[in-house]
Specification:
By secondary structure, this protein is mostly helical. Helix content is 55%, strand content 7%. Bound molecules: adenosine-5'-tetraphosphate (AQP).
């Protein structure tokens, strides 16, 4: 039976954290069982904000190894590096020329990220959602797993495909691009910063203590949880808007311990932070242990990792090239058979 196709990716902008895992990669691992899954390390996106050329390649490689360590299976999914597939940049250019500028200026992530950048905002940052549209559309993806923060970008990809390409260049018989649907990620998936429960956990936050990285050793995890922001109330509770940190830490505990929020609420209703924090550290350490063991094995066998990425690259190149040629032909470029 024809399986629905899914595409997703993470930027290699630092060591992946538990937010990237619980909000994204963990869902891909489930999706690959019943979908044709493509996941890439989106290094072209990673240079839309200032980056360090000395660490980009290493982080790209380590992000791919973490996908595998978290359970992505190269027999079921194609895992590849975005910059190794030329069609992403090429389609992005074509879509740039067909996308109205005022659509881009509305993008919330651009507004938020550009404030942080001050005078150093690149055209690439404004263009980030068009590149993301190219990523998705190249693979004829049926579904794109998105969190709340990426919904607007997927909407843009749909509008570009429908209004700027298909409506203008398709023939009655042939639609050029498949219009993808969002796959809304289940609740509990947004992990907030350990130092401010109203901000999402982020790789690029300058404070390392705001996040738990997937490769943090046990003593560092314990230290970070000890330092995590709390409040002076006794008893812990979910969903009290005045206590975002309590809600966030309880959610992490609930997901990782496999206990339903209702059970966790009862367990922690009379608990103080001094008792809860060691429990949370313990579940974090044991949840991350198998990922860290697998990661160490993978990173020591670069030949095997390269083989997996090459297999993914070949498959991604084959499919993306076909879509790109379809677009190029339909908008009037002189075609030649490769
Ligand atoms: N805190 C989070 N909680 C849940 N999901 C998260 N994701 C990121 N942070 C959280 C999900 O991870 C995927 C890939 O993210 P990305 O690296 O492409 O970009 P991002 O969302 O901007 O992630 P970061 O960690 O905050 O990176 P920087 O600091 O570089 O911008 C997405 O599916 C995202 O929803």
């Amino acid at each position: 039976m024809h399986q629905k196709r899914v595409l997703s990716g993470v930027q290699p902008t630092g060591c992946l954290h538990i937010g990237n895992w619980l909000g994204a990669i963990r869902n891909w691992v489930e999706l690959q069982e019943e979908h044709e899954t493509f996941v890439c390390v989106v290094d072209l996106h990673a240079i839309t904000t200032p980056h360090d050329p000395k660490t980009l390649a290493k982080e790209t490689n380590s992000t791919a190894a973490l996908y595998l360590a978290c359970g992505m299976n190269p027999e079921k999914s194609s895992i590849f590096i975005q910059s190794q597939i030329p069609a992403h940049s090429e389609l992005c250019w074509i879509l740039n020329c067909l996308t109205p500028l005022n659509w881009m200026e509305r993008m919330i992530q651009f507004k938020e990220k550009s404030i942080k950048q001050g005078d150093n905002v690149s055209i690439g940052l404004l263009d980030y959602p068009v590149l993301m549209a190219a990523d998705i559309l190249l693979y004829d993806a049926d579904l794109v797993p998105v969190g709340e923060d990426q919904k607007q970008h997927l909407e843009l990809a749909r509008d570009i495909a429908q209004q700027r390409i298909n409506a203008r260049f398709s023939t009655k018989e042939n639609n050029i691009l498949k219009v993808p649907k969002p796959l809304i990620i289940k609740e509990g998936a947004k992990v907030m910063s350990l130092t401010d429960g109203t901000n999402k956990m982020s790789k690029s936050d300058s404070n390392e203590f705001s996040r738990i990285a997937l490769l943090d050793p046990p003593d560092l995890i314990t230290k970070k949880i000890k330092r995590a922001k709390t409040d002076s109330e006794i008893g812990l509770e979910f969903n009290n808007p005045k206590r975002p940190e309590a809600s966030n830490l309880l959610s992490i505990y609930s997901i990782l311990s496999g206990k339903a929020p209702q059970i966790v609420s009862e367990e922690c209703a009379d608990m103080g932070w001094g008792k809860f924090k060691p429990l949370l550290s313990e579940v974090l350490v044991s949840a991350l242990e198998p990922i860290q063991i697998k990661y160490k094995e993978l990173i020591q066998d670069q030949t095997e990792l390269d083989k997996i990425l090459e297999k993914g690259r070949l498959r991604a190149d084959e499919i993306s090239r076909k879509t790109l040629n379809r677009v190029k032909e339909s908008i009037g470029f002189l075609n030649r058979d490769y």
